[in-house]
Amino acid sequence: MLGPVILAASRSDKMRRLVSAAPVTKPVVDRFIPGETVDEILPIIRRLTEQGLELTMDVVGEDITKPEQAEAARDAYLELIDRLKPLDLGTRAEMSVKLSMFGQALDGGHELALKNVRPVVEAAAEIGTTVTLDAEDHTTLDSMFAIHEELRKDVPQTGCVIQAYLFRTEADARRLADSGSRVRLVKGAYKEPAEVAYQQKQEIDKAYVRILRTLMEGEGYPMIGSHDPRLISIAQELARRAGRKLDEYEFQMLYGIRSDEHLRLAAEGHRMRVYTAYGTDWYGYFMRRLAEKPANLRFFVRSMVSKG
Asked: Per UniProt, where does FAD bind (predicted)?
């Protein structure tokens, strides 16, 4: 049960300083976060799209304490969109955003986040692509879903993320599937109390399958966010039963994890989107990647031992 411990460490300033200072950290972080600037990430975008893959881009950073920081996050995404425009990739390169970066946790945060994210969503639509609102901890979700609904009034292709481990998600999935939305389903990567979320992997996996069936049988566009071979196989079968064509759903996986599977699925004709993060404030994102999967943590520990 190391996941909750690592998630707690992701919020510790002391652990942030310790991990950031470790000599081995940067080469390991580079596996998951391949750049800090737009200039560094553009060659990655070109390489992946040339391999037949699609991307969703995340500018990492969540510890927003001032409105000016939220505006800076907005501007970082607007810069990315401006640099994507001449590549003419359309939806092959979309964006994922966390509303906490846009000021959601500040005073008046709901209105502030909506104000800051709207120009990003509109700018993305202007270059033929879209934005997906990432899910964060359960206390933020009512605000996220309300912002998602508001944005879809003008930009209906705006997507959102739901988390299988939350009890509420089956009802959320039915609502979103009926509305024809783009929905990414993930297991969930935040430490949530037993009052609101399943705690055991088996329960989470069963919920994932139930929710995915709802999405596949609905009117929306399902995005399967998982590296689990069993769930990927189940998703393919559910899509077949629902009569979905290969372009009527997609798989999404993280940059740096199971890259061979990315290419395999794309070669089979599936839409395969790689969640690619970049930026300087990488710590929280990196620690959640370690918490999500024991293999990621083992990779980090082995690297520290081999470099020690």
From this structure: 163, 187-189, 201, 226-227
CA distances from residue 149 to 98, 281, 292, 299 in whole angstroms, order as listed: 16, 29, 29, 40
pLDDT tens, residue by residue, 220-268: 999 999 999 999 999 999 999 999 999 999 999 999 889 999 999 999 9
Cβ partners under 8 Å of residue 240, min gap 6: none
Residues classed as catalytic: 134, 184
Q: Which pair of tokens denotes residue 141?
A: 């979700």
201 is in an annotated binding site: yes
Region of poorest pLDDT, from 115-124, 145-154, 247-256, 299-308: 299-308
Buried/exposed 185-202: b ≥16 CB within 10 Å, e otherwise = bbbbbbbbeeeebbeeee
- 182 is an annotated ligand-binding site residue: no
**226 labelled as ligand-binding?**
yes
